[in-house]
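Working notes for the structural subgroup meeting. M.R. asked for a predicted model of this chain before we commit to crystallization trials. I am recording the input and output together here so anyone reviewing the notebook later can reproduce the run.

Input as submitted:
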Amino acid sequence: MKVLVADKIADEGLEILKSFAEVDLKVGLDKQQLIDIMGDYDALVIRSQPKVTADIIEAGTKLQIIGRAGVGVDNIDLEAATRRGIVVVNAPAGNTISTAEHTLALMMSVARNIPQACAVLKGGQWKRAEYTGTEITGKTLGIVGMGRVGSEVARRAIGLEMKVLVHDPFVSKDYVQNIGAKLVPLDDLLKDSDFITIHTTLTDATRGLIGSEQLATLKPSAYIINVARGGIIDEQALHDAVEQGVIAGAAIDVYTSEPATDNVLVKCDNIITTPHLGASTNEAQVGVAVTVAEQVNAVLKGMPAKFAVNAPIIPAETLSVLMPFIDVASKVGEVVTQLAEGQLEKVVINYNGDIANYDTATLKASVIKSLVDPVSEEHVNLINANVIAQSRGLKVVEQKEVNIENYVNMITVELTTDAGTTKVGGTLMRGETHIVLINDYWVDVVATGGYWMFSDHLDRPGLIGTVASTIGAVDVNISSMQVGRLKPRGQALMILGLDELLPEEQRQKLLTIPDVYNAKQVKL
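Returned structure, recorded in token form:
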């Protein structure tokens, strides 16, 4: 067995690799150099460099596994690796403690003005009054995102006698309460916290999550810390808020573009900035290197990897049956996640029809992936689905029934939150995924990509036309319409396919139409 290590990793990881394989350490290779030699290796280990493109993967004719000694795998073409049957692994827990500790270090620094005071003293000035700080004991810490890092920050903050508030729609209330924190809506967290730390991944849903509007709701004495991903906080808005005294200060470790030497936040004296040091400890580097090396060893021996991030291999005997329903499970999960409101408490997955006779772990993984992907950088698959669900305190129940009345096969997902239960069912017809059940309504919507408007309303003359006119008034085209009702002149559900996202102001106007109960947009 031969392993190519194309980035510098900790010696402890190299020693593990050398114990079972021939190891070549070649750092700084360009794309063509990698393509030229990749056919000689069974495994590739990297960090943030190089970019493992489809061309490099195709050249790895013997390649079985790619290991990323870190969390993110955005520098690896996952689709190409999966297509070739190459396992991609990472080390999501290896730098958890280091990142949590750096968060606390920045919080302490911003509370006591440590970097500024140090710089002034080294410049030959003795200034004490200007750098009077604030204690963190007894203060309220708001944590946005309760994954691995957020959870560790919460535990340590509680040990420092802080009150901890948490916003994360995808963890259970019991999980947060067991740590000693309290779940609250984001608006309440921002309004009531003295310190705010960000620990969610960067997605379409979280990009710009904290902008000028949100910063304006913070206490003037509040501080905000980000050691997660650049782009979650609007950088210009944060700069302006600190400069104008809207908030007291900030500490930032991550940026929209790195290196960030010209970033607007670096130029602000009241914002502490560090060059993406969250995982930069000796212990973290050893941890991620050892974790990846152990997984390379396992895969080359024909065993499963602990943190595989791409699609698992489905057993041949179930492939022909389950493969088409992976998309059904995923789309049902996407829709129900976006329709549900409140704090997630329980997930029930129902399999009806022939698919109930098979091992549905792959379908379960697809549902969990749809629930977790918007808020987690951990890629969910057959191997780690249960672990990720458990780590977030999610109760996932599977139920199977071979008999079914309306369809040959059907997957239904019920999300129970503190606001109630939302149910979505889907099936496969003519090779396409169809959403066929929304709560109590039987519908038939082909689940293609795009934007959809789901509206509960009273079934009365003229209402559909009023809704359509309101949407058309802002030049948003309706591509399709589906209406389900419980009875004539009773409660009904309208599903509109839209060519683009309806502006929030116009969505709010829909809610002012008499007998329109809600209007929720879903993106597939």
